[in-house]
Structures are given as C-alpha cells and as structure tokens.
Amino acid sequence: MKRRGDIVPFDYGVRQHKRLKEANYPHKIRALPHVIERIDLLSMSVEDAAVEAAATNQIVWLQRLLPLVASQVKDQVGCDTTDIAAARGHCEAIKLIYRCWVQPAGSTFANAFSIPKPCYNFDILEALELAVKNENDKIARVICDKSGFPGEILRWAAKHDNLEVLRVVYRFEDDYMEDLYRAMIIAIERGFLEIVKFLTMECGEGLLEYAAGEFGFSCPLVTAIAHGKWEVIEYLDTQGMYLDESEDFDATALERAFASAAGKNQLGIMTYLQTKKKFDRTAIDKALNSAASCGHLDSVKYLCDIEGYELSAAALDKAFENAAEDWNLEMVKFLGGKGNVSRASINTAFEYAMNEPGIFRGKADDQLKMLKHLHSKGCIDPEVISEDFAHVARNCHVDVVEFLYSTGSTSISSDIVEKAFRKATRENSIEVVEFLYNTGVVSPKSIEDAFLKAASRGDLYVMEYLFSCGCKFQSLLEKALCKHSSLPPRVLLFLKQKQEITLM
C-alpha cells in the first residue's frame, strides 16, 4: 500500500488557515466582496480541515468533512488523518475514518460472507507504527480491528517482532492461511522465537498441511537453518515443523544451508545438519570455500576434520585464492599445509592480494605480509606484478608499492611507472608520488601534466610536492596562470605566491 502522491494537488497540505473555503456565509457577508476576499486569505481546503479535525479529535466536524473530500486525494487524506489521529491517541477519530472509508459498503448480511475490502488504499501500517512507538495499545487495537488489512498487519507484526499486535489480528481461517504462513516464515528468518512459538502452538499443524498442498512455500525448519537461527532451529525440530513428515529434506536446500552455516562460522548448525544428511565431497568443498571466503578458520578446520573427507585440489586452490584476496595470512598458511597449491593458483592469489583494500580486509600491513609470503614461494610470474602495478599505485600503501617495484623492477617498464605516477597524483598519497618520482624514470612532461591537472582540481598538496621537485617551474607556472579563468581562487593565490618566490 503506497501513498498516491502523484495525484495530490500541488497546494495540498500547504495552506494552514482557519476557515473552510466552501462555507456558505450569510447574504450580508457575501454582499461585501472585500470581506469575502479577506476571508479567503484565512480559509483552508476541505482536506486541510479534515486533517486538523482529526488532529484535535473534533468528531462532529470530521464527520461533516469526510464526505466532502475530493476523490483524487482520498487516499492521501486517509493516510494523513489516520497517522495524526494515531500519533495523538484519538481512537474515535480513527474509528470514524475507517467507518466512512475503509469498512465495506453493502448490507450486513452480504458483508458477513466476504472478507472486508477497503474502499481506498490507505497506508495503515504507518499509523500502526506510530501507535506502537507511542505505546498506545488502545489505538493499535483499534487500527487492527478496523483496518480490514489483517494480512498486511500480520506480516508487519512478524517483521517487527510485535506479538501483541499479531495476537489482535490473528485468525485461523482459510482466507488467512497464506498470510499466517508468510508471517511465520518472516519471524523464522529474523529469529523471533516468541512469534514462532505462538504460531506453531496455535496453528502449526494446519499451516504445514496448507503449505504442503501449495507451490512455492519453503520449509520452516530449512528456512531457520538457512538463516542460522539456532534457537529457532532447536524449537522447530522438537515440534516437527518440516513439510515432509519423513524428515527427508530437500538435499539442495540442506547443502546451501550447510555452506551458509560454514560462511557464518556456525559450528553448532553444521554439526546439527550432519545429523540430517551425510554430505558428499562436493557439498563439503562448497562449504569450505564459503568459510575460507569469509575468513572463518574454525569452520575450515572443522570441515577438513570430517571423517572420510579428502580435500580436492580444485577446492584447495579456490579456498587458497579467496583467503589471499582477504589478506588472511593465517588461513593461507593453514591451507598451504593441507596440500600442494598449484603454481597458477599462487599467481592468482598474488594478483588478488594486490587489489585495493576492501571493507572486510585488514590493514595495509596485512596486505604487505600476504604479498611477501606468496612471493617467498618463488613462483610468481613477473608479468603479474607489471600488469597491475599502475593499479596498485592508485590504491595501495607506499610500502606495498615499494615492495612490488623492488621485486618486479625488471619487468616494470618506464611507461608503466609513468602511468602509475599519473594515477598516484590523482588518487593516492604524496608518499607514493614521491617514491615513483624518485625512481628517476618519470619524464618532465608527465610532471608538467600532473601539475596542471592538480591545479585544475585544486589539489594543493600534489602541486606543492611537484613544485619542490626542483624542476624549472617558471614556464609551468605561467602555463597554469593562463588558465586563471577556470582555476579555483585558492589555486590562483598559490600560483602567484610561487611565482613571486621564483622571481626573487
């Protein structure tokens, strides 16, 4: 349910006045145009008046206004009046709004045999959230009772771990079975045990019977396993909450859950899953790769110790590469001791380790240690370093840049160094720029281009360093000053100061 803001008049909600524009005034007043004009300046629309009436709990006034609201803004006004009444605790106002607009039209007899369908598309969940936030149980109950949206509210309650709201709208009827089942799955995914217990005790068996006859519903127990909710897993297992009575779970789903648990370092769940299924070598390989990718050495050791499991060469190489990419030296050393990692995999791991720091990686020192460890194996191809050196100069710490240059200098051409220099002046630290300049292979033309580009983007730090390199900068300063119309003021000031220094 979404607010239909695209059809709301442009001036709706803007006018904050005192009287209703459509009011009928006595003839004596209507005969005075200048008075009517002043009244109009202080008047409000029906929509604004309805919101104000709901905010102040003026029931009689609100009852008169609701039928007058323009049809194209009924949804918006319904949202606003309900929200503000809920926020201020006005139960009667909410009841009136739902009675006028939400409750179904037609006879009582006809309504008794149909699910209430709202006349308009109100965003009731926002009002419900306000009531719950303000701890106004009475308002929350009114919204739940009168809204006509039990399915929406069931899922909202499950998502927000609100058992009290869920109890209010709970109905174990055929028309609400899908909503109940989806609410239970939501609670399972989030680990909300109390809601899971309530639904299991009230209608667990019925929900399983319903889901077994439908397509596309996940097993409650497998869902809990996949999301790593251990307390929920234990409870659902004791209650027999699985779709197949023989407990013959879908093998693919269990394998995914096993890999997920390994990636989250959930050893208890991994042990539990092994009681449900004997995983083959392929499934364990996937789980090991997941654990190595996430840096969980305990899970990797657990998997390697499974009876009858032999780590394949392909799985070892893949896990080794993933661990190196995350600069996890302890993991790399452990995997290196479990078998012979291929030369190609070591080179791939070295290439991955040269990549820029990620949010889940360690410090620059970890990257340097990883690169030194991999290089010590004596099988790193020089081309691996030269191909990515410019990229490293753009992102990595100066210690990493120095190490790679010292180990791959024979394969790193002057063109590569100049490319790295250009990237470093744009995106890395002065320390990296200084190191690359001191290699002696950076041409004056590259320095000049770097200086002019630094001036255009206002990078005074790079400009200051390049100026101090000792090159002839009088002509360069003049070139930069020729572009004064496009340079930031602080750059112009810097250039003029340097020009004065060079002329002294």
Automatic annotation (TrEMBL):
This is Ankyrin repeat-containing domain. It comes from the Eukaryota.
